[in-house]
Amino acid sequence: VTLNLNGHTVTGADSDTEKYFTPINVKAGTLRLEDDNSKGTGALKRTKINVLSGGTLELSYFAKNPNSTATTEAVVVDGGVLKMTQPFYGTINTLTLTNPASDTSILSGTFGKVNAKEGLTAANITSRDPYVFQKADGACVPRAQEINGLENVTVVYCPHKEIDENRRCTICNEEMKVKITAADGSVIGHSDILHSGELSKGVVTLLEDVATADFAATGSPASGTIDLNGHELTGSITVGYTLTLKGSGTVDALTLGSTSAYGGGKLVIDSDSITVTKLEVVKNSETKLTHGTFGEITVTQSDLTAADLLADGYAFADANGAVVN
Q1: Degrees to nearest 5, angle at CA 234 with 229 and 240
Q2: Residues 222, 228, 231, 232, Cα dihedral to 10°
């Protein structure tokens, strides 16, 4: 059954006391709440949805607008399943998790107050790492901490702002693959494949061998820095900005520029301990190399040769030291 509020309000009991709210009992099948109104203003007031054994309440598509004021007064999960697996921008004033079924999955939503049985943590109800509860002041509740009594919290993807000496996030315990150091010195961890968006946040330092998401330069920052830190960056990077490689390690495949609308790429390598296995130059922009080892260089830009990539006074040499450019 789907209930689409369409921006309207359903009001139950006259009393503002939760004990007397009008109950909606979900005992079998699925009740799916939606609000297709573009402003996300739908609400269930003075009602209490009881999700009982055999029943499922799905709020996955309720309150899709990030500025939504949609409100559900009270939800009690006692034996049933609560699913909030898509962005839910509304608020549940009181969420009571008496006995949620094991396949309950809460990956979004804001909650005025959380009542939960003893021992229940975010790890029990978020179905996959690394979602956590975040307080109004931005502080995150560790995934292993009990959630009973939390107030004014939102479920978010863990920001990984604290990393211990074992490369694990102190909030969600997930092992980090890279750390990103912002200009102000703050550190953010990252546990997935590396996307171009990470480069806009600060200096990216590899903590292990990492795969890229095959960056394209479109939408990427004007410049970015990767400290290979002794590791290998696999996959393909297309650079339409200035990319600086630091430390030591290997980059599998790197393309400077593209035949599409965005500009050429500039590569800066600041260490002799960096190897680029395959470098393709489609559209160069002021690259002047002074360091680096290259397995293969292909230049398709018609007015450019490999030697044009070198700073004044530098040359390419083979493994025996013989100059080859």
Answers
A1: 90
A2: 30
